[in-house]
């Protein structure tokens, strides 16, 4: 089995890096977050606690 030259390894690395970056960008930009239309859901509900020392 012939050995790969360093230039071939480098080109293989570049190719896989480009594929990885493109795959991540496609996943990132294809995601659409759900927009909450109700304002009351966006507010954080907090309970007031009365501490008795």
Automatic annotation (TrEMBL):
Spans traversing the lipid bilayer: 6-24
Keywords: CF(0), Hydrogen ion transport, Ion transport, Membrane, Mitochondrion, Transmembrane, Transmembrane helix, Transport
GO BP: proton motive force-driven ATP synthesis
Phylogenetic placement of the source organism: Eukaryota, Metazoa, Ecdysozoa, Arthropoda, Hexapoda
Family classification: Belongs to the ATPase protein 8 family.
Any one GO CC term of the record: proton-transporting ATP synthase complex
Protein name as catalogued: ATP synthase complex subunit 8
Complexes and interactors: F-type ATPases have 2 components, CF(1) - the catalytic core - and CF(0) - the membrane proton channel.
MF annotations from Gene Ontology: proton transmembrane transporter activity
Membrane topology: Single-pass membrane protein
Superkingdom of this protein's organism: Eukaryota
Subcellular locations according to the entry: Mitochondrion membrane
InterPro entries in UniProt: ATP8_metazoa
């Amino acid at each position: 089995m012939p050995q790969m030259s360093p230039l071939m390894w480098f080109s293989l690395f570049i190719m896989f890096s480009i594929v990885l970056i493109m795959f991540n960008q496609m996943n990132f930009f294809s995601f659409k977050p759900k927009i909450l239309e109700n304002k009351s859901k966006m507010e954080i509900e907090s309970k007031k606690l009365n501490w008795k020392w």
